[in-house]
Specification:
Pfam families: DMRL_synthase. The chain has five helices and six strands. By secondary structure, the protein is an alpha/beta fold. Helix 2 packs parallel to helix 3. The longest helix has 25 residues. It starts with 16 loop residues before the first strand and ends in a 10-residue tail after the last strand.
């Protein structure tokens, strides 16, 4: 058996990411994006929009990020997609609908495509709380980029492993040792 874990020390020069950013509350989302880029850059990813590693897609708000992320994931061009948004509670229940649909949509995009889609949509009660998480105290954009790097590495390992010998080989008899399972090439 084996332990699989993503690393941050892989050769990142061939990794491809897409970052989907909601324009709504862009005071926050541009800061999340900056944190995200800083982390990717320090891990060897070329974040230049004219480079070969990262594409950027702007959408109106958090409600739209998942739909676009799913489309990008389906293209098969990316190791991971990072969704950035900021949903801040107001006086109406609008917050709950936008936040909940964004979360459900991002999860669905990931499940349906098998590509890691990182949920980088902040949901806070106040603008102050959002600012604190987007640069004043820490910048969660950094953490979202780390998740994308880790998941890219992990999925690459699992794909390699599944292609050569099944990680969870199941035959009619039940679980068998990996080496006894025939592989098709
Ligand atoms: N979009 C956000 O990203 N954050 C919000 O706080 C927000 N609020 O509160 O309304 C918001 N609304 C816009 C929404 O994401 C869509 O863009 C819009 O409804 C059009 O579909």
């Amino acid at each position: 058996m084996a332990v699989f874990e993503g690393t941050f020390t892989q050769d990142t020069s061939s990794l491809k990411f897409a970052i989907v950013i909601g324009r709504f509350n862009d005071l926050i989302t541009t800061k999340l994006l900056a944190g995200c880029q800083d982390c990717l850059k320090r891990h060897g990813v070329d974040t230049n929009p004219h480079g070969t590693n990262v594409d950027y897609v702007w959408v109106p708000g958090s409600f739209e990020v998942a739909m676009v992320a799913r489309q990008l994931a389906l293209s098969g061009r990316y190791n991971a997609i990072i969704c950035l948004g900021a949903v801040i509670r107001g006086q109406t229940p609008h917050f709950d609908y936008v936040a909940s649909e964004a979360a459900k949509g991002v999860a669905a995009a990931s499940f349906q495509t098998g590509i890691p889609v990182v949920f980088g949509v902040l949901t806070t009660d106040t603008m102050q709380q959002a600012l604190e998480r987007a640069g004043i105290k820490s910048n969660l954009g950094w953490d979202y980029a780390l998740s994308a790097l880790e998941m890219s590495s992990l999925m690459n390992q699992l794909r390699g492993e599944v292609a050569t010998k099944s990680v969870f080989p199941v035959k009619e008899e039940g679980l068998l040792p990996a080496q006894s399972v025939e592989t098709s090439s």
